[in-house]
Design a protein that fits this description.
Length: 219
């Protein structure tokens, strides 16, 4: 398999260089660019088309959360993994809303970052254990504030496909399982996102957990 193309966005040179060495030593990722701030990250993501952007949150010019949002709005195929010291629930929630598919703490083991990058490439969410607890707590709290009797806006088929998507399954596998064309699955995906007013797989996963369609163990 070809190494995963990674763009590193962090305003600290030592961190960028250190991560580059570790990632390339692992043979599973190739660093194709550096960004010292969010503006450069957005520009390079559009120019270099990486598989995954590893994004710090606190950077000059443009923060990592807004940069994540802009990158994904321009190209939803690019996956963003947040690498940060921030562990506040509000920050984690904002990162997910911006479209990040992974969140790893800077004091985590390096293997966590590798797993996050590989999961992101496969369109699967990944969180450091501490972040996973925060995400679950946030899901449960928001779920408790929702009206449990609210009507499901999705059809039976859309609900079925939504659950597969929320688990991170690619359209091709969903099509094979349901004996549908990939094009049909993609059309359903678009309608699901529109009906739920959701713009990313991370948000869809959050919705599915809140509503009880899947659990964290399914991801």
């Amino acid at each position: 398999m070809e190494p995963i193309k990674v763009l590193l966005a962090d305003d600290h040179t030592l961190i960028r260089e250190g991560l580059k060495g570790l990632l390339e030593q692992s043979k599973e990722a190739e660093v194709i660019g550096f960004a010292e701030n969010g503006l450069v990250a957005v520009e390079l993501a559009e120019k270099l088309n990486p598989d995954v952007v590893v994004m710090d949150i606190t950077m000059p010019e443009l923060g990592g959360i807004e940069a994540t949002k802009q990158i994904i709005e321009k190209n939803s195929d690019i996956k963003v993994v947040i690498l940060s010291m921030h562990i506040h629930q509000r920050m984690v929630s904002e990162a997910l809303k911006a479209g990040a598919i992974g969140y790893v703490l800077k004091d985590s083991a390096f293997q966590d970052l590798i797993l996050a990058i590989k999961s992101a490439k496969a369109n699967h969410p990944y969180f450091s254990p501490e972040i996973a607890n925060i995400v679950l707590e946030g899901f449960l709290n928001e779920g408790n504030s929702d009206d449990k009797s609210s009507h499901n806006p999705l059809s039976k088929r859309e609900t079925e496909i939504m659950k597969f998507l929320a688990k991170g399954m690619p359209a091709k596998e969903i099509a094979e399982d349901l004996v549908l064309s990939v094009k049909t699955v993609e059309k359903h995906r678009q309608r699901i996102m529109e009906k739920l007013d959701i713009s990313s797989i991370a948000e869809l996963t959050k919705y599915a957990i809140q509503k009880g369609y899947i659990t964290l163990d399914d991801i």
